[in-house]
Amino acid sequence: MSSMSEIKRLTPEELLEKRRSTLISRTRAARLQLDSLSLLDTSYDTCRQTLRQWRSQMLDQINKAHETSLSQLNDAYEQINRFRSTIVNLLNEQNTNDHLLSSSSSTQLTQIESSLNTLRHAEFTFDFDRARQLEGELELLKLSNPQQQFRSFNKSNTKCRLLVPYDRYVSDVFFYDDLITRIDCQTSECILVCPFDLLSDLLGNDEEVRILIDQTYLPSIGTQAQRIRIDYSLILLQPAQECCPQSSERVIRIICKDSTKMLSCLEEIYSICNQQVAPIAYNPYNPVNYNRSKTHLYGGYSDIPTQNDTNRTNSLFPLSSNNSSQQHFDRVLMPVSIRQTLPITDMQAGALLGPKGERIQQLQRETGAIVNIGDLNDDNGDRRKRIVNIQGSQQQVNNALQAIKKLLMIVSNDDIGEDSLKRDGEKVKKI
């Protein structure tokens, strides 16, 4: 009511002026909106242009990716075709080879069948006594000529473990990188694990080397130690008195003026080891167990010279005293040593040796004694005698004697059984 009363109080001129001001304000607001619309158009044009550029770039990239994929697919298709042709050729060659093998196999089968028919119609008797005698003579011939049974080994696969001072061969190990392994525990000595074919490059003209060998191999090396010293003109071939700390390895110290003979000696030692059965409880030496107070016992290196080291260096066995050096080698293997002998026949010698000498080597490993068979002795009996030499401690010798007698008793029983069978067969033939 009050607003209506105010309108009624206004004059027409005032009403027109008020309406005009209202229209002007609305016109200004409309103009501002139009101006804002023109800014939106500009933004729209810019956005549309940007989108068109992005679209063109994306199309270019898609086209390039498509072309690359087509090229790769073509290459793969060509490779698959080549692989297919190779497989077809291999299958054809395999079929040809199978055909040739089948024809050759049929020929071989025919020859084998004819040989078997010949054997079926043949009549012969096998002389077991003569066969055992020949086997024993062959094994003894091998033992009496150890150089002839010397067998080569794979030098690149044989890993030699050398005990060296901590500051030796550092540059050589760095040069050969992964081929030579250095086991170093920041002590006065370290271990180098080196393939045998690199020993000549590593040692050069060095006159002394200390190798680590499992103690189970020492008896086999000790039986040939005297010959090895003579053959290779060694100044020293000396095993340590004890195993390295907390291990089953012993140090063998070798001194030789001739580097070529040194390598030949090492080759024969490792060949002897390779011919033996691998130790069951092999415990390699680790320098982390280094014991300075026992280096003179296990042949290690010490940064503090001791009287024991001096005496050990001055007591090297000269080349002329091979007997005393052999005795030293045996004393190290068996500190309290006795020797006993046992006469046997040729056939018993062959049984004691076993195939390739494996039985006598097993006997040495099990009893700890050194067992070897001596030369022939003249005997007026039907069968020639041989001498078994047994050396070791009292317990070792007793164990070895018991094992040998048990084995010879079994052989004698088998011999009696075979003789009786042979006699029965002769009786049947006569009938």
From TrEMBL:
Parts of the chain that traverse the membrane = none
* PANTHER family in UniProt: KH DOMAIN CONTAINING RNA BINDING PROTEIN (PTHR10288)
List the SMART domains hit by this protein, alphabetically.
KH
Task: For this UniProt record, give its keywords in alphabetical order, as a comma-separated list.
Answer: Repeat, RNA-binding
**Cited Pfam families:** KH_1
Superkingdom assignment: Eukaryota
Q: Which residues form the K Homology domain?
A: 336-409
Species of provenance: Rotaria sordida
* Xref: SUPFAM superfamilies: Eukaryotic type KH-domain (KH-domain type I)
PROSITE patterns given in the database record: KH_TYPE_1 (PS50084)
Q: Name one GO molecular function term.
A: RNA binding
- From the Swiss-Prot or TrEMBL record, give the protein name: K Homology domain-containing protein
